[in-house]
Amino acid sequence: MSHFLWLLNRSCIKDWNVDPKLPRRFHWRPLRRSTLAPSPHIDSIEFRSLNTSDLPMQIGNCSRYNISYLLLYLAVLHSIAMAQLAPLVVPALKKHTATVIWAHGLGDTGHGWLSMAENYRRRGKFEDVAFIFPNAPNIPVTVNFGMQMPGWYDIIAFNDLAQAQDQPGILKSRDYFHSLIKAEIDKGIPSSRIILGGFSQGGSISIFAGLTSPYPLAGIFGLSSYLLLADALPKLITPALKSANSSTPIFMGHGDSDPLVKLEWGQRTAEVLKGMGWKVDMRVYKGLVHSADPKEMDDLEGWLSERLGASSEQ
Question: How many Å apart are CA 298 and CA 314, to the nearest integer?
Answer without folding.
Answer: 16
